[in-house]
Design brief:
Layout (H helix, E strand, L loop, with lengths): L1 H8 L3 H18 L1 H7 L3 H15 L7 H32 L5 H18 L3 H10 L13 H40 L7 H15 L2 H12 L1
Helix pairs in contact: 1-2, 4-5, 4-8, 5-6, 6-8, 7-8, 8-9
Length: about 220
Amino acid sequence: MNEFIDMFSGSDPTNVATSVQLILLLTVLSLAPGILILMTSFTRIIIVLSFVRTSLATQQMPPNQVLIGLAMFLTFFIMAPTFNEVYDEALEPLFAEEITLDEAYDRASMPLKEFMAKHTRQKDLALFLNYTEAERPESLEDVPLTTLVPAFAISELKTAFQMGFMIFIPFLIIDMAVASILMSMGMMMLPPVMISLPFKILLFVLVDGWYLITHSLLQGF
């Protein structure tokens, strides 16, 4: 314990540098959830799955824990090649003390940049580049993460909402058909959602909805 305290209180430059690296490491670990959400496929997946539940009007079925767990495992499945490249190119040489921490950061950021740039609209990226009044980058390496991450995030939001809109259409048609039938029968006091819910669940099961949603998400990446 005393050695740990001395590491921060000592005047040795080596101890000071180690302390700074430890603080930076703890900071990165605290930001890990944000990194997972904004720099991977997690955002699109969880929004689309939430749209599915909302369009079915099944309230809390599936529960939030199930949706988040499914979104996380799909994210790890989709991001596996990128994570493997980060480990092989950056983390493994760093652990073997073959490269410095700065070199490891540069190597680790490139696979993530390539993934995000592939799914980022040029219009969204240009928005943040123009705001910072930065020069037009000549290559992907010149694009800073502080610019690419928010551009990727809003691109993923737009894509997820587009997919959510397409998911809503068939269930909306069922709701409108049921509401029209109830109105024609004079049963205006009966909630249409109560009648349409079994039909929407039946349709979703017959078309194997979870398979189609998952297949669309995987094909999108």
